[in-house]
Design goal:
The chain has twelve helices and eleven strands. The protein is an alpha+beta fold. Strands 4-3-2-1-11 form a five-stranded mixed sheet. A four-stranded antiparallel sheet has the order 5-6-8-7.
């Protein structure tokens, strides 16, 4: 399952207009996949918006300092919510904005939305039964406990009690916080005056969990938010579709450059025919993906269509230009409009990953995570044991990549 990690970078000095033009707190968050930075963002509120929000909160009885804290918390909450949505869309679609950073600028128009974010705390451990609200993180020693609800210890609570509890709310709680235990402080009149956290576990083993209040965005430096999505099912591919995708790309290639210079150099029909076969075992998967990688290696781009180079550049790039995918990438970057390069790069990256998966399987390469990691890069998370499904998914990804290259090349043909 593909996932990304959101972390809180801190309050960054990103104030091009000067501090007087902004709310004085500018939180920064970032999302990463492995070692790759996906996106970094700063959340700004205009000075006018800040004053408007402070005035509204002061009318509710808060001091100016308390109002500023509420607004700062709301900006962090806004950033986490919006960044989670962005990352979810990225993981689902596999594409994001052109840049790796941005500034989300909020104004007076956004103040109602900001204040609504912090008006009421939501908690995954709240459970409502008819008119009553219960805390299902209750400690076994909670004197106010009423037994179990859905197998969990439960105790009476209310929204104000939950609001004042140190356990962070659903929207900003650290993804690694587990098994909190909450108990009630009972006044002399047998009335619950407070609910507070007595214990919790951290899935990363961080000692900071002892101070649960900091297990939120903007709290402990180890705070993280994990965003994961189920990989999309591979679209069905007919037995002949992959071979046809190669054929059509070859036809468009000849149309674009020279009908006498095919893209594919084939000496036998056995390899294309093998692409239509299914598989059920790991050995069969190895054979199928090897056949596909061999066909990719048979891509042949004439030197005439590569980017012109000086003698020195030719010597420098000599080894690089031995690889078939490097040659087609070099050719398309040279001939196609720059706006088409991103789509070309994504398609070729998919084909490279398929070759890397073949190499990892055949040669036992473990660098970069080996076969399992390469299959995950292709959106495949259940092989082993589902080798048949893995091959269907590989074929689907290859068809998508070849179709993309064909579309981009056809766009080039149409403007010639």
């Amino acid at each position: 399952m593909p996932q990304a990690v959101i972390s809180y970078v801190g309050e960054m000095p990103y104030r091009p207009g000067g501090i007087e033009d902004l709310h004085p707190f500018v939180p920064c968050l970032q999302a990463e996949m492995g070692d790759e930075l996906l996106f970094k963002v700063w959340v700004q509120l205009s000075f006018e918006g800040s004053i408007n929000a402070i005035r509204q909160l002061e009318r509710r009885g808060l001091s100016t300092d308390a109002a500023n804290q509420v607004i700062s918390h709301a900006l962090v909450r806004y950033g986490v919510d919006r960044l989670e949505q962005f990352v979810t869309e990225y993981l689902s679609a596999g594409s994001g904005p052109a840049g790796s950073s941005d500034v989300w600028r909020l104004t007076t128009d956004n103040v109602p939305q900001l204040l609504a974010l912090v008006e009421h705390k939501t908690c995954d451990y709240q459970m409502r039964m008819q008119r009553d609200l219960f805390c299902t993180a209750a400690s076994a020693k909670d004197a106010s406990g009423v037994g179990k609800v859905n197998g969990r210890n439960a105790a009476p609570t209310s929204r104000p009690l939950c609001q004042s509890c140190a356990l962070p709310g659903t929207q900003t709680i650290c993804s690694h916080l587990m098994h909190p235990r909450v108990t009630a402080l009972i006044s002399g009149a047998s009335r619950i005056s407070e609910r507070h956290v007595v214990d919790a576990l951290c899935d990363r083993g961080m000692n900071e969990v002892r101070n649960v209040d900091g297990c939120r965005a903007g709290g402990h430096g180890c705070w993280q938010r994990i965003v994961a999505v189920e990989p999309p099912d591979a679209p069905p591919v007919s037995p002949l579709e992959l071979a046809e995708a190669f054929d059509v790309l070859d036809a468009v290639w000849r149309l674009a450059f020279d009908k006498k210079k095919p893209l594919l150099s084939l000496s036998t029909v056995a390899t294309p025919a093998a692409l239509s076969l299914r598989c059920t075992t790991r050995a069969e998967f190895e054979t199928r993906i090897s056949d596909l990688a061999d066909l990719i290696d048979r891509i042949k781009v004439d030197d005439l269509y590569l980017k012109p180079r000086s003698e020195e550049e030719l010597e420098k790039d000599k080894d690089k230009l031995k690889a078939s995918l490097n040659r087609i990438e070099d050719c398309l970057h040279y001939h196609l409009d720059r706006a088409q390069h991103a789509a070309v790069d994504r398609a070729i990256k998919t084909l490279r990953t398929i070759r890397q998966a073949r190499n990892a399987e055949q040669h036992g390469i473990t660098e970069g995570g080996g076969l399992t990691a390469k299959l995950r890069d292709l959106g495949i998370y259940d092989a082993p044991p589902n080798w048949g499904g893995a091959w269907d998914a590989v074929r689907a990804r290859a068809v998508e990549a070849l179709t993309t290259l064909r579309h981009e090349l056809m766009a080039y043909v149409n403007v010639q």
